[in-house]
Design brief:
The protein has ten helices and twelve strands. By secondary structure, the chain is α+β, with helices and mostly antiparallel strands. The protein has one domain: outer membrane lipoprotein receptor (LolB), chain A (Clam). Strands 7-8-9-10-11-1-2-3-4-5-6-12 form a twelve-stranded mixed sheet. Helix 6 runs parallel beside helix 10.
Length: about 290
Amino acid sequence: MNGSSLTMRGAALGSAGLLVGAVLLSGCAGSADSDSKDSDKGQKPSSDSPKRQSPAEAVQATGKKTSKAGTADIEMTVTTSGAQGKSVTGEGVIDLRDGTSEITLQQGQERIDQRVVDQTLYQQLPKKAASQLPDGKSWMKVDLEEIKTRGGAGGTGLNNPADSLGYTEALSEKDVKKLGTKQIDGTKTTHYRVHLDLGELAKGDAAQQKKLRKRLGDDVPVELWIDDEGVTRRQQVALTAQPSGTEGGEKQKVKTTIELSDFGTEVDVQPPPAEKTADMTEKVAREAEQSS
């Protein structure tokens, strides 16, 4: 892989590189009553509130409960260690039901504007990376469904930031530990640590499980902060990962944090103009297959 393709792929992975974990962390937030940011204040917990559930039951239920929020503001921070260490931040809005989102990613002085519409990722790249696009194009386009089909989410890291918290449903009591409580943006949350088995994450796909273990190790620690309505307000993964496309190189420590707030916010996201967009799905898929 030459330098230019690395530049392109590095930009393409800006969102998901943000999320080594988009597979793990994707999507969540909200509340069953999401008309207002403060909709949970002053209300009694429902009968299936985390207060009345075991730690595993609370975490098992949070995926469905957070998806009912509809929409939310999203903030992301990803830091990586090692010689190629960096810090990337992002903020925007997201529809928690179908993944439609608009997020601005920032690394130092470089900015990537990202949109996800109809399971398609669009990114307006920094100048250096955009020079790899065809003349007249300033946005790249990647079909996320095609990438998953050909390379698997774990192979590319490209994912919709609101994919799912479905993995939580398969957790048992031994996988979840309650750590305490914490106020997040004025809302009381309960802090849980989850030990995620990669075999369960791969959903029986032996090849996918092998890829995940190769890159992420045998265990993936996930932390969740869930409010009294069962809504995930913050999720965090801290792991040691093998960067895609490298063999035997230095592994990186990667910490990804996603916070959600302002549930019920307006999300109106449109694709960029077609004449400004270059479809890079095939290129990204090939590079993912080569690195797996």
